[in-house]
Amino acid sequence: PIPSLKELFKNDFLIGTAMDARQIRKEDAVADALIQQQFNAVTPENCMKAENIQPGWDTYDFDLADQLVAYAQKNNMKVNAHTLIWHSQLPAFLHKIQDADSVRMYFENHISTVAGRYDGKVYSWDVVNEALNDDGTLRKSVFLDKLGDNYIVEAFRLAQKAAPHTKLYYNDYNIEQPAKRAGAIAIIKKIQAAGVRIDGVGIQGHWKAGAVPLKDVEESIKTFGALGIEVLFTELDLTVLPNPWDHSTADVSATAQGNEKMNPYATGLPDTVQQTLAKSYEDLFKLFVKYKKQIGRITFWGVNDGQSWLNDWPISGRTNYPLLFDRSFKPKSAFYKVIATANGR
Ligand code: G3I
């Protein structure tokens, strides 16, 4: 068998993966074996999001979430539950609510019901997800709009009450960048100043192979760590594809499939790019190992390249290669570079 990430890093940090619905239902035996061999932490990719878990007002669907919790318990894995309060993937009924009182009622009921159900069963919650703009200001959302800018503190207060045995995290992307990082620091300090518990901050880690912002990541680990909370890397993947925003609209609007410019590796990843990806993962894990005292968990956003959301974002139908395992679950050179950072100590 291949080396095991969770074994090699067991004294450093948890090693996690996102699990999609098929994997939770154990529809893919190869994926299942690999998940059990490699990971000791799991995050539901979608099934605990608001639109899925409370699709109708006070109507809950806990089916997949319960299956995930049982799966993790059986296999000795920690569940990072994702996510309670997020501006996106909200149930349709919430978009129709206009008055602040009803939004508040939803907000309170959702947090206490969902976080309460899983207290003692999950390890941690992403209590609030992606509340910031890139400039560090609070993002427009139904919660900011109807509940005011104290809604994040309130979410943590409610989560703490409903889930006293569960770690509580703030999770966002790009918060390693200085301006957005300052916004995250302000959120964390505000929660702490209110006497409310926050246990960690999740840096999502959706970066680009060959362009990982290592200096900013290092600075962030130090700064967040100094606030007395854990640092987590929660959704790690490294795209190898061109960013449509760097290209002309003509390039982008052409269909992605068969479009050389937007989908250059439809038939396979050239060795040079494979090496670039591997080097980026190696650099990152060297940093993670260096700061293992501050870091609680590294989670990959998916098991293999074929299932990654990055094949379909921001344009769909592309062929991306952002993870450690290829489409047939074979470890890539990036996997072995990561393994080497554990062995090299
Ligand atoms: O399950 C339905 C299926 O029944 C339906 O036929 C199909 C048609 O579109 O949609 C399926 O649901 C999709 C779901 O993924 C499962 O594949 C949703 O449309 C799609 O919006 C959803 O995308 C997810 C996205 O978050 C939005 O929630 C991605 O899988 C997931 O990887 C992504 O994860 C987010 C994190 O939660 C937060 N940080 C960023 C990260 C990447 O966007």
From TrEMBL:
Enzyme class: hydrolase
GO molecular function: endo-1,4-beta-xylanase activity
Residue ranges the record marks as coiled coil: none
Domain GH10, first and last residues per copy: 1-341
Keyword Hydrolase recorded: yes
Active site: 235
Any Gene Ontology biological process: xylan catabolic process
Entry's EC annotation: 3.2.1.8
UniProt catalytic activity: Endohydrolysis of (1->4)-beta-D-xylosidic linkages in xylans
Cell wall biogenesis/degradation among keywords: no
Entry keywords, A to Z: Carbohydrate metabolism, Glycosidase, Hydrolase, Polysaccharide degradation, Signal, Xylan degradation
A Pfam family recorded for this sequence: Glyco_hydro_10
InterPro entries listed in its UniProt record: GH, GH10, GH10_AS, GH10_dom
Family that this chain belongs to: Belongs to the glycosyl hydrolase 10 (cellulase F) family.
Listed name of the protein: Beta-xylanase
Source organism: Niabella ginsenosidivorans
